[in-house]
């Protein structure tokens, strides 16, 4: 399948790299462009067989499926511009959460889907979130799901849980990265451990934890019980976490949902849907 990418920022580039590395696609099947064309040309330096085009219209005409990897508020004007170029058998795919597939379908005459990736997909792991429009036929759903299976565990979701699912899957790595950095900094400030050693130990702890969970030997609660011996050191640490972490995460979800509602409102004004 020939695939196009309009937008080669962070997430667009991550998807391109992951799809090539997983051998889900070959570079010569990809056509890409970016508003700053130099970013697309930098990708071509690493994958010479990729086709770079100056105009998004050229990407559409050369592709069966087109990933739109631009900011939410740039999607509507871009689709209005490209609408005459799309044909009914093509697939347009947005990767941004505030834009609904139903909104895409009001502008373009082709099939529409949403794929919300995660930075973890770059390691050919993690989950990707899929939502299909009514325009998508069974063959298209199978193609997109099969493509994302090469780099992730695809999970089909409904609009109602889009934001929380994105918080966990897509934003989650940034949230956890922040917490681990605070974890490391506190260790350095409160003890004599070097930052270098604290980073090494924390990184390997996370890798090991991930592998342990992957084996499904333990659930998260049972893993905690195995480590937390009654009257031990871990229990005292858990008490400190209990004082603030629960409210912290609740506030985090409130903040992301408030911002999401703002983005949804702005997108609705554009699409008038």
Automatic annotation (TrEMBL):
<protein>
    <submittedName>
        <fullName>Competence protein</fullName>
    </submittedName>
</protein>
<dbReference type="InterPro" id="IPR036291">
    <property type="entry name" value="NAD(P)-bd_dom_sf"/>
</dbReference>
<dbReference type="InterPro" id="IPR053790">
    <property type="entry name" value="P5CR-like_CS"/>
</dbReference>
<dbReference type="GO" id="GO:0004735">
    <property type="term" value="F:pyrroline-5-carboxylate reductase activity"/>
</dbReference>
<dbReference type="InterPro" id="IPR028939">
    <property type="entry name" value="P5C_Rdtase_cat_N"/>
</dbReference>
<feature type="domain" description="Pyrroline-5-carboxylate reductase catalytic N-terminal">
    <location>
        <begin position="3"/>
        <end position="97"/>
    </location>
</feature>
<dbReference type="Pfam" id="PF03807">
    <property type="entry name" value="F420_oxidored"/>
</dbReference>
<dbReference type="InterPro" id="IPR008927">
    <property type="entry name" value="6-PGluconate_DH-like_C_sf"/>
</dbReference>
<keyword id="KW-0521">NADP</keyword>
<dbReference type="InterPro" id="IPR000304">
    <property type="entry name" value="Pyrroline-COOH_reductase"/>
</dbReference>
<feature type="binding site">
    <location>
        <begin position="6"/>
        <end position="11"/>
    </location>
    <ligand>
        <name>NADP(+)</name>
    </ligand>
</feature>
<comment type="similarity">
    <text>Belongs to the pyrroline-5-carboxylate reductase family.</text>
</comment>
<dbReference type="GO" id="GO:0055129">
    <property type="term" value="P:L-proline biosynthetic process"/>
</dbReference>
<dbReference type="Pfam" id="PF14748">
    <property type="entry name" value="P5CR_dimer"/>
</dbReference>
<feature type="domain" description="Pyrroline-5-carboxylate reductase dimerisation">
    <location>
        <begin position="164"/>
        <end position="262"/>
    </location>
</feature>
<dbReference type="InterPro" id="IPR029036">
    <property type="entry name" value="P5CR_dimer"/>
</dbReference>
């Amino acid at each position: 399948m020939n695939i196009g990418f309009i937008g080669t920022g962070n997430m667009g580039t991550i998807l391109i790299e992951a799809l090539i590395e997983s051998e889900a696609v070959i570079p010569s099947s990809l056509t890409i462009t970016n508003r700053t064309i130099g970013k697309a040309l930098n990708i071509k330096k690493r994958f010479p067989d990729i086709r770079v085009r100056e105009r998004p219209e050229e990407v559409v005409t050369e592709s069966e499926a087109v990933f739109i990897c631009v900011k939410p508020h740039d999607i509507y004007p871009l689709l209005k511009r490209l609408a005459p170029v799309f044909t009914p058998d093509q697939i347009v795919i947005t990767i941004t959460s505030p834009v609904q597939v139903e909104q895409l379908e009001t502008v373009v005459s082709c099939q529409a889907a949403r794929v919300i990736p995660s930075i973890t997909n770059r390691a050919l792991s993690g989950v990707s979130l899929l939502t299909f429009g009514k325009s998508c036929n069974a063959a298209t759903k199978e193609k997109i799901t099969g493509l994302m299976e090469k780099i992730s565990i695809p999970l089909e979701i409904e609009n109602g849980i889009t934001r929380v699912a994105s918080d966990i899957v897509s934003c989650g790595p940034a949230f956890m990265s922040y917490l681990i950095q605070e974890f490391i900094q506190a260790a350095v400030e409160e003890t004599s451990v070097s930052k270098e050693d604290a980073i090494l130990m924390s990184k390997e702890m996370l890798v090991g934890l991930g592998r342990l969970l992957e084996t499904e030997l333990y659930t998260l609660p049972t893993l905690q019980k195995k480590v937390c011996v009654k009257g031990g050191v871990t229990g005292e640490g858990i008490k400190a976490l209990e004082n603030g972490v629960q409210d912290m995460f609740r506030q985090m979800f409130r903040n992301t949902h408030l911002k999401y509602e703002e983005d949804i409102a702005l997108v609705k004004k554009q699409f008038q849907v």
